[in-house]
Amino acid sequence: MKNPKGGENMAKLKARELVGPAAFYVGLLIAIGAAFIEPTGWLYVALGIIGVIIGLLNITARETGPFLLASIAFIVAALGMWTLINSAFGAALITHQKF
């Protein structure tokens, strides 16, 4: 017999609300573990899929604009830092590479 107050629906809603934070912690554990192993293509795929799951489940409609702005700012900053590091230390990094 179903609960007239919607107990089953509340349980499903609670379970769905826990998927986003759980995916975040799984991704965090994978990222920490990846610091101690040599990364492979599958590691990047797994982190990308978990990131999409986290983004879809944890970002509300109200947070979409600031989230997109922060994402663009992060990408621009990362590209700028890569250019700076490459131009400042590029020659030193090339001469110290091991093949």
UniProtKB/TrEMBL annotation:
Top-rank taxon, per record: Archaea
Key words of the record: Membrane, Transmembrane, Transmembrane helix
Transmembrane region(s): 18-36, 42-60, 67-94
Protein's name in the database: Uncharacterized protein
